[in-house]
Every structure is written in structure tokens, then in C-alpha cells.
Amino acid sequence: MWQKTLPVLKNFSLNDLHQLRNHLDLLIGKKTYSEKSALDKRANHRANVKIFGTAEIEREREFFDKTYKISIYEMSINGMVLNIPATVIQNDILIVTFRLPSNGEKKIINVQAMRVKETLSDRTTLYEVAAQAVDKNTVKAYRSMLKNRGKNFLPS
After folding, report:
1. Closest Cα to residue 134, out of 126, 122, 142, 145?
2. Which terminus of the chain, N or C, has fewer Cβ atoms within 10 Å?
3. pLDDT class for 37, splitting at 50, 70, 90?
4. Does 53 lie in the same domain as 15?
5. Taking the CA of residue 101 as centre, how many other CA atoms within 13 Å lie in the half-sphere pointing to its CB?
6. Closest CA to 24 of 34, 16, 36
7. Mean pLDDT across 17-34
8. What are the φ/ψ torsions at residue 7 (nearest 5 degrees)?
9. What's this model's pTM, rounded to 2 decimal places?
10. Which domain holds residue 22?
């Protein structure tokens, strides 16, 4: 099969080869995902949601008392993917507040940014943040790290 396919691919333009690679990457991703989730009860690992809320960045709480409007569009048991207009750095702790759509109950969750991707939307910069839920001990350790930063470098 490869002996027939490779000579045909040599005649393709560079743009066509890039498009073919993108389609193959999507196909490989779908097949890999379907094999991994064959034993899983859910069809997707994250639920697609549309929840609006607010978030505070723990790093900024020392200087600013500012909350940012966010939109959560994927959620799982221990994490979420959200859009925020503020600059978020990887491993930042965010305090996310939102209301459950089913009963209106207010939820406050501490999450840590695991992956941050900057996107441009209508001349404004949005940050797509994949965050994982963390416990109170992680938040306390992060706060003490922020409080003690720079103290080890003081001249003797």
C-alpha cells in the first residue's frame, strides 16, 4: 500500500501536504481517544457546559482586589477549562466562583492553572486556562511562597 501512496504524495504541493497532515492528526487523535474511552462510561472526559462566573488570581490579591468575569466551557470532576481576560501564568492559583445551573447553588473552587493558551478575540486578549482543582493546603503553600519570595536573596 505504501509503495503506491508515496509516489502520489510526492506530486502534492506543500499546502496540500500540510492540510493532509492536519487531517491525519485529527484522525489519529479521534482514534486514540476512542480507544482510551472504550471502557469509560462517559462519551467525553469533560462535559461541555456554558457557565459564567468570576475568578480572582491569588498572585494579584496581594496588591489588587479585582475579580474577573470568566466563562467556563468544559468541566470535569477535578478540573475545568475557562476563558479569562486577565493575564494568567502557569501554576497560578485561581479562586473561581459560579452558580450551578441546575439549582442555583453558589460554588467556590480553588483551581491551579495547568495549561494556559493566549488567544486574540475582537482586539482583546483572552486566556484559555485548563485548571485542576486543588485543596486548601496547596493554596496555603502557594500563599506562603508568595509571601516569602525574594527573602532568600537578601545580602548578608
Report:
1. 142
2. C
3. low
4. no
5. 8
6. 16
7. 82
8. -65, -30
9. 0.65
10. 2-36
